[in-house]
Design a protein that fits this description.
The structure holds three protein chains of three kinds.
Chain A lengths: L1 H33 L3 H5 L6 H11 L5 H14 L1 E4 L4 E4 L6 E2 L4 E2 H36 L4 H15 L2 H14 L20 H35 L2 H8 L4 H39 L4 H10 L3 H29 L1 H6 L1
Antiparallel strand pairs in A: 1-2, 3-4
Chain B lengths: L12 E12 L2 E13 L4 E5 L6 H8 L9 E8 L2 E2 L5 H7 L4 E4 L3 H4 L6 H12 L4 H14 L5 H4 L9 H13 L5 E5 L7 H18 L2 E5 L3 H7 L2 E6 L2 E7 H6 L4 H8 L45 H4 L4 E3 L5 E3 L4 H7 L5
Parallel strand pairs in B: 3-8, 3-9, 6-7, 7-8
Antiparallel strand pairs in B: 1-2, 1-4, 4-5, 9-10, 10-12, 11-12
Helix pairs in contact in B: 4-5, 4-7, 5-7, 7-8
Chain C lengths: L12 H11 L1 H18 L1 H8 L21 H4 L16 H37 L1 H15 L3 H13 L10 H31 L2 H8 L4 H37 L11 H8 L7 H29 L5
Helix pairs in contact in C: 1-12, 2-5, 2-12, 3-5, 5-6, 5-8, 5-10, 5-11, 6-8, 7-8, 8-10, 9-10, 10-11, 10-12, 11-12
Classes of the chains: A mainly alpha, B alpha/beta, C mainly alpha.
Bound molecules: adenosine-5'-triphosphate, iron/sulfur cluster (SF4) and magnesium ion.
Adenosine-5'-triphosphate sits at the interface of chains B and C.
Amino acid sequence: MLRYLLGRIAGALTVVVVVSVVTFAIFQLAPRLTGANMAFYYTGKSTSEAQAAAVAQKFGFDKPLPEQYWTFMSGIVAGRDLSDGVTEVRCPAPCLGYSFRQNRPVLEMIGEAFPVTLGLTLGAAVLWLLFGVAAGVLSAVRRGSVFDRLATAVALIGVSVPEFFTGMLLIYLLTSGPAWLRLYPDGINYVPLTEDPVGWFAAMVPPWTCLALLFAALYARLTRATMLETLSEDYVRTAWAKGLPPRTVVGRHGLRAVLPPIVTLVGLDVGALLGGVVLVETLFSFPGLGRLAYRAITSQDLPVIMGVTIVGALLIVCANLIVDLLYGVLDPRVRNAR
Amino acid sequence: MPVETTPPADPLLSVRDLRVQFPTDDGLVRAVDGLSFDVAPGEIVGVVGESGSGKSVTGQAILGLLRRTRARVTGEIRFDGRDLVTAPEAELRRLRGAELAMVFQDPLSALHPYYTVGSQVSEAYRVHNRVSKRAARERAVQMLDRVGIPEPHRRYGAYPHEFSGGMRQRVMIAMALVCTPRLLIADEPTTALDVTVQAQILELLGDLRDEFGSAVLLVTHDLGVVAETCDSVVVMYAGQCVEQAGVEDLFARPQAPYTWGLLGSMPRVDRDRRDRLAPIGGQPPSLLAIPPGCAFEPRCGYHEEVPESRCVDERPALVHDGQGRAVRCHLTAGQRLTLRPVAP
Amino acid sequence: MTGTQAPQVARSPARLAWRRLRRDRVAVASAVALAVIVALSAGAPVVCALLGIDTERHIELLSIDNVGFPEGAFGGMSADHPLGVEPKTGRDLLALLLYGSRTSLLIALGATALSVVLGVAFGLCAGYFRGWVDSVLSRTMDALLAFPVLLFSIALLVVLGGVTPTGGNGNGLRIAVLILVIGFFGFPYVGRLVRGQVIALRQREFVEAARALGASDRRILGTEILPNLVSPILVVATLTIPTRILAEAALSFLGVGIQPPGTSWGQLLGSASHVFTVTPTYMLFPGLTVVVTVLAFNLLGDGLRDAFDPKTN
Ligand SMILES: Nc1ncnc2c1ncn2[C@@H]1O[C@H](COP(=O)(O)OP(=O)(O)OP(=O)(O)O)[C@@H](O)[C@H]1O
Ligand code: SF4
Ligand SMILES: [Mg+2]
């Protein structure tokens, strides 16, 4: 078990490093290819020649790439002194960079955006797991029933609707639609949980729905298929043969076997979820990581992009790590084997 | 255990004209096709027949496990006077595990991979007995010990994949016997095991019968196993019973040509015991299109002895001789005596 | 375990699958719908000419009081402009949708082709050679699956956007870049599946036999394994197309894909995202088109899978 754990952690760290290298490479190499001015990416549109030169010097754009990468990574541990040629700033210890456009350390921006995204993703995950798994199990148990057909149809449509389209429909209906549906006449605006829990919840419901719908449909389909397969397994037949009531056979023996594949899928979907978050936060204008990243990318605020991408990768990798560990707990064969 | 009140002649289980049909894309698969046989209380009945002859399906039909599949089950399965085919599901559920239990063919896939063997055994006990978790646990440990699992206290918490094939089979048996059922259906409990383990398991079944008075329906490919363990034998072919007889009778005076073939292909003591039955020439009929006459006719060397090609046109009935023997063949009693090949 | 020997005429699996597929009404309907969609978008100029619509600006259709939103109800629907016109430009929405379908489908199909080619190559090698080759390739694919793909795609597109001319109708290069980016990030899914299939196939007798006869790896891969992968590849390709459609839609929606005046489903939805509370129809039609197309591909893919492998249902 310990070796399994260590192996997984090592793998996870490797992924983060690879992601950071690739992100670094994209943003260091590509501007060179296009002949753009690196200093511009770091500071802002109004970069003077002198500033650009200062920045280039300070960041060592003339140094070899590996060395630059090392400087960046060691900044995370040690902090860095940065300058855009006009102002000098000290970016303290876990330094993910400093945005000269916003005049703030990247980490601070990320720290502010993180709770929004966390609430969004966790809430959506709870919703989709609850509804998706429940619908899938019921469908499988009542295979061929009206409920099954309805759920299957809804799930099929659900996996075919992009979250931003659901989002626009929701926003339209809830803010400008028919009067009885106009539950958010003033728009759907994010409220921090700490300020107003009820308002937070109310504001979260539409984006949750929009993220959860797609995944719930996906999970309903997967759960149904896996459950059907499981219900035809020999060990489920054994459960029947013991004289267990259907509740126990399905709820304990069946569901237990469906959990590992669902957990695996959750791990695989964290990346996709982060993508969904970018879309939904952008659409709903929620100040989370997704919107932060999107804005940084479109305004070419390189330090922020680097920071968010690395944090994003870290999140994905952590989620995967948790999933892996959970899988080890759920599947005794894995637990013992490694 | 209630005291056995029915006279021993009254069968515990009586199967009459059982039919199990699976509708498939290719047509109707007649897996069991008019099967009849009896099991007396405390009796060990062997069920033999080639692969695909419907042995496992019969066992599952008895427990009502085919109810949630697309299978159509008709006929009569009388267990202790109750017809299990028509019994309400709630009643069957009370019987399953408590009075009727089954050891499945493949013990690895029949055990839940994610639960400890101990919890699976004690769960089987707790369904039918209102006892505390601890009491059930004790009972399970006791059962694991009884079926010969070393260090049962420690092994209680182990998972199926941590057991060898033989040990898994023992767990299955412990699970099936934990409520001391009156009928145990053991579906090839020894097929995958090596000879010594096989002998141990069979001995265990015999002992348990003596201890708990359970009747056993022992499904197997292996006539050697039958000879050693069983009181009587049902010979199945294409979903039908072609012969039922006491075990000595069957080996000494087999009546049906199919049984002759089976015995002829039986591995001998001087050969490797694990030799499977050398197949009788030809293939069993497709279960999608069982011949209208005798199902064995295409492979039978004796059908010309029966006049008017009745073997082709007319299905022979299962004829009981009143002394617990039954045969399904058009040959007359005299012919069977004279035509039977000399004892194998 | 169905060991019944049905009296079977030697029918090839492909023919059997084809027969099953033809009996599957949902799959047939989806295929027909897709054929119509593809035909309409491929023949967009002709269709537009026949309908008498074009993608020219029609400022006269826009209301001046209402800052550039179409005159009339429902986004300016009229006999001349059946789905209305685009806010701010007055271009015909149906025409835009037809041309946009062209772009979206082109990108989705191109990206799928790339994903499948890469996926099959990776999957084949990983599954066939096992050992360290497998380790390296599988880890690569796993790592890619753990990437924040959308962020990377956005970043790549922004960076490469510096190279690609965005003015005028210069979306040609952008389409190519989109195909590359979207196609690349889609390949690990295909690769994983192919790898699994190859591992299963490797154990089969005919492969063992070929190896025993001394056939080269290349020959075994080409003549024994690949032909047996055709049906799973076909299925996974069909099911990859809708995911690539959604990927293009997402990127263009965010404004880093196809740029106006060029058009695609995602681009239309992206433009609509700023105005949909005023003209919901401008968002509704492109959205529904995406949903219908994606749904049809999903249904067809499911049908194909069931036809090739009737067990799973
Ligand atoms: N669910 C099912 N659908 C269709 N046919 C089935 C199904 N289950 C069993 N059969 C068929 O019923 C026949 C009898 O199967 P069964 O498992 O009872 O054979 P068996 O005598 O136990 O054989 P073996 O010795 O190999 O275990 C087989 O031909 C099998 O293909
Ligand atoms: S009925 Fe005829 S074919 Fe069937 S076993 Fe008897 S002799 Fe053979
Ligand atoms: Mg069997």
